[in-house]
Structure formats: C-alpha cells, structure tokens
Amino acid sequence: MTFAKRHLLGIEPLSPDEIRTLLDVSDQYVDLNRSDRKSGQALAGKTQINMFFENSTRTQASFEIAGLRLGAHVMNMAMQASSIKKGETLIDTALTLNAMHPDLLVVRHPQSGAVNLLAEKVNCAVLNAGDGRHEHPTQALLDALTIRRAKGRLHRLTIAICGDIAHSRVARSNILLLGKMENRVRLVGPPTLIPSGAADWGVEVTDDMSAGLADADVVMMLRLQKERMDGGFIPSEREYYHRFGLDPAKLRAAKPDAIVMHPGPMNRGVEIDGTLADDINRSVIQEQVEMGVAVRMAAMDLLARNVAAEAEGVMV
Amino acid sequence: MSATIFRGAQLIDPDHDDTGVGDLCVVGGVIANEAPDDAVVIDCAGLCLAPGIIDVGVKVSEPGERHKESYRTAGRAAAAGGVTTMVTRPDTDPAIDTPEVLEFVTRRARETAPVRVAHMAALTKGRDGREMVEVGFLSDAGAVAFTDCDRVITDTKVFARALTYAQSLDALVIAHPQDPGLSRGAAATSGKFASLRGLPAVSPMAERLGLERDLAMVEMTGAAYHADNLSSAAALPALERAKSAGLNVSAGVNIHHLTLNELDVGDYRTFFKLKPPLRSEDDRLALVEAVASGLIDIISSMHTPQDEESKRLPFEEAASGAVALETLLPASMRLYHAGALSLPQLFRALSANPAKRLGLSGGSLTPGAPADLVLFDPDAPFVLDRFTLQSKSKNTPFDEARMQGRVKGTWVNGAQVFPFSDDHADL
Question: Which of A42, B119, B188, B372 has the fewest beta carbons under 10 Å from its own?
C-alpha cells in the first residue's frame, strides 16, 4: 500500500499506485457505509475544519459526513461571512486557523492555486475541495471509484468528457487521473469551452457528440456553469442542448452498456435529458454521490495516518 | 581637473565587436584620449568595462507608493546593478502627467538618487486614454518620452491625435502593445501550462493585434514610436515590416522575457507573475534572436517594485511585475554565457541604443562621451538572496537562482557611485 503525501492538493502529484491505494481503502469504506454501524475510529480525537470560500452544499456535506463517520470533530466555517470580508488575507486566515491546531483542513476557493498557497503555510493536512479552474481531486477519485466498480477495471476504457471543459476543475482532475490509469480520454464540447492547449494533454478533442461518444464506455457530462456564461461562450442554452446536451439519441453512439455520469448539480434540459439522468440502467449519478463519502473518508484516513507517522519521526 | 585611468580592462565598446584589453582615460568626467600624469590609476585586472546601462522603463514608486520604492533606494539599486541612467515610468499615483508633478520627481531624483535619472511622462492625463497631456510643456520640463505604460489608449481617435501632436514636437511615444479586450483578466499565456493550472490566459496574438494597430497609426501620423515590453514571437513579423518600410519605429524587451518562460511560474509562484505574462520557450528564443539581429533594439529591466502583501496572494489576485535593476546585468550574462549574444551586442541593447533612441548622453566609450561606466566580472558566480537587494521591494524571480556576472564598480560622470562609500566591499 502506497500513499506518501502530506496533502491532497490535486491528482497531478499522485502516482498510479497512490490512486489505487486510495480507491482500495475507499472500497472498504463503501462497505462500512452500507452496514448498520456506519462508524469508524480512524479520525477519533482529530479536528477537521471545512473552509469553503465558495458556496457548496454537496461537497461540504460529503466531507462533513465523512469526518463524522470516522470520529472527527468537524467544524464548518462559512468563509463568505468571515474576516475575509474584513480584508484579512488568505494567508493570515490560514495562520490563524493553524494556531488552533486542526488536523485536517478541507478548503474550497474560487482562485486556482489558492489551496496550494494555503498548504504552504500550515502544519496540518490540507485537502483541496476545489480551487478555481485548477483541480478537484476528491471528485476525480469518486468518479474513478464509480467507474471501477461499474466496469470492473480502471484502465483501457474509452471515456468521453463532455461540455464546459474550460471552466471545469472536475474535468482537469479527471483528465489527469484517467490518463495516469491509461485510459483513452475524449473531450467533447464547443471550441469556446475547450481550453487552449487541450490537444497537448494526451486526449482527443472534438466538437461532434456522435464522434466523441462513439464506442465510449463512460460518458461524463459536466455542468454548464451558468454564472460563467456571461462572456457569451455559447449562443443560447437551447442551441447548446441541441448540439451538446446528452439525450437517448446521442447516447446511442456509445457502447450499449456505457454508463452516464455527472458531478452535479445538474441542469436538466441544458446539458442532460432529465429522464436519462434518472434512468437507473444507464445513470450512475446517485452512486457517484455515495462514492464521494467513501473516497473522502479514505483520503482523510490516509492523510491522518501520514501525519501520525511523521510525528513519530517516520519519513513520509 | 580630476583624471582617472582604468588600466587593463576588457573594453566593451558597443560600437566595436572586438573586446580587447586596454586602458580608458577619463578627464573631468568625460572619456578622453589621454590623461595627465597625475591621474588616478584603477587596475581593472582584465575585468570588463562597459558604458553604464541606460534602463528604459524603471518604476520608482514616487509619488504615491514610496513604501515600495523611493528615488534613493531605486538609485542605489541602479548603482549596484551598473545602471547609470534610469529612465522612469509615469505610472505613479498620481501619474506624471503635468509639469508640476514632473518637477517634483525631478527634484526628488536630483536630491536622492546617486545615478542619472531621466523621466518619461504620461501620454494622456491620468493615463485615462481620453485627453492628451501638455506634451510641449512636459518636453520643455525634461520629459524624454511619453507613455501610458501598460494601459492601451483604446480610443483610436485620441491616440491618433496624440501621435500627430507628439510628432510635431519630435516627441517619442512609447507603448506596451496589447489588445485590451483579448487580454482582459489574463494571468498567464494561453497554452497547456495555463490550462492545467486553471489560470485565465491570453494568446500572444493579443500583443500582435495591439502592435499592428499601433503601427498602422504610426504609418498614418509619422510619429516616433517605441514598442516596449514585447513578449511574443507573433508580434515580430509586424515589427520587421514596419522597420523595413522605414517607419520611425524601435522596440524593446524586458530581461525576464529573455531569460524565463511560462513554466517558471511552477506552482503558482507569484514573483513570476508579469504583465504581459511569461511566454513559451519558443517565444523566448524568438525574442533572443530578435535582439541578436537588431530587430529588437533595447533590453530593459521593466523594474516594477511590489511589496510582500501584494504578492502573497492567490496567483490571479497577486500584483504583476518584478524588481530587476540589480539583476539586469547578471541575468543578461545568461544570454552571453549561453552563446546567444556577445558582450558588445548586449551593451548595444543595454546602453548604446537607449541613449540614441531617447537622445541621452552616454552609451559609448568614445572620447567625448560622459564617463558613465560599469566595471564587471562576467564570470563571477553567486546565488542571489533577494534580501540583499538595495530595492525596498524584494520581488525578484531570481531569488535563490544561480547567476554569473557581478558588478564591481559603477561610475557616473567620472565619479564612483558603487561600491557605496559606506560599504567596505573590495575595489
């Protein structure tokens, strides 16, 4: 078992072995979460602080439940209403919290790289719960766990990631993870929503859904970030749905047993057909949410073990 | 009259490609053919002696942000970096856009800076791009060029009139070409790196668009124009066309775009956040080649002091710019040691060309030129510690970098200004 990291800042620094370790431990937590006694002791006596500088319901709830089930004291800080508003810098906030000796810091921030910056200034383990357009590692891990459990493997699969790639940290983390595990990744979306240089990422890029979905094992839809649409990246929602929204007709290009994923929250009728999203034979969207808790338990468990090992003088 | 002989120096004369060892005489602050017998002899022991650097586009944060840099600290940094003339930017607060503000900074510079200082003025009032400044009065008060710095005058009618008016007074207009729409909100150059880091990015095409626009207006008005702070290969063909068409056009690049690239940003290191952003390695190589061919005339530091607070932020929020008065020469030596540029080529871009383009004295070792000199060891290795810099602000991307090339002495008008008299450094 390998997982030699102090923080979980992104998928980029992880090795394939570390990803496998995280997923293996997550599998154990899926079993625990499905049992009657949903509690462990891995984080007993630890303090976990969730710092969300950006609104979040599902991710924050998922981290909170994960911490509570492992026995941690969990505290949620609504950073929107805090001293940041009074002009305190991110680093000062980090130093203040650090002085209270938390063991785990879960951070979401609207700026790319902000969580890396914060991690440099604190002694505890930091988990990136999404920074700007950069990374969202636990989302990519829960997607990987969902795929591995549905497909029986996490390599040599064809995965189409569709929609607003440019503004999506979920897409970046997924591209990195699926690439590291040796899958074939396709990006599908209007060229205005494909980031520059994407063709150099070792992925295929297309603006044609039927070509992008052809023989795909997994179809991963992304949320069309409405709040980021003010720049006029697409002409209208209805044209977007017509060309890029996932419906049963477009899905026919994929393999008959292809699964449909979405990180949520969904815009039904914009990027995905509502009925399809609810089709339990194709959609694994609810499983993704379930896997999210397990993956976050595994990540925090492994990081806490590394911090404990370090305290005992073992090199991590 | 005081006289000095610099004995046994490797003379870097921008007008000559050979760099033989010889003596240089200075009498009464001016380079001379010979010196009287009682002249002070400085044994240079084969070190390089070159005309002092004339650095176009230095930001001294007076007035407005003296906590970031003053004329005293910038002047000391310049002296320590072999810069004998600082040509300062007007992007202060308030902007240097009236003769009165220009008079204030001229006095501050004269009282506190140990090197020569020439000032540029804004081209439009408040650098707002709406009304032109008093180009005539400001020229009379000593402004050597007019620039709104990193702000683009988007109203082409305003820009055309300003160019036409400046042309009638033989005033040089300097711009940092950029398309403001395409580059809005950008923190990095577009491509794989910026996309992976999730940073908003701008294509180098924005620079080409800005330059093409400016050059069309220069063709229309006949103004003297210097495109400064170029950063991309995409802009160079337009520059080449304008020059071969005989337009009164020159171009500049800052040392960071010649020695660093986008990958140096690494894990969101804000000291590498510049405007325009660091570009690809292909862009860097094209810029170095353009300096070698003479297409780009001037290398500058684009010295931009920022305090710790404005850099200790997430990358997008952090301020742009880097201090470079003291690192300009050692960073330039990277290009020399890489075999990309000879020492005379470098000092053409660092000293001779800026003097010619801005009509300043200096930049030459020819008798009759002022004795503004830098003595340096091009090989001396060191590891830079940013806290040893003279600048008030310490935001250098070269912190902890291995460098080669140390300034051993700086003279302005024949008088030694570095090492500082209060220091006890050797020589």
Answer: A42
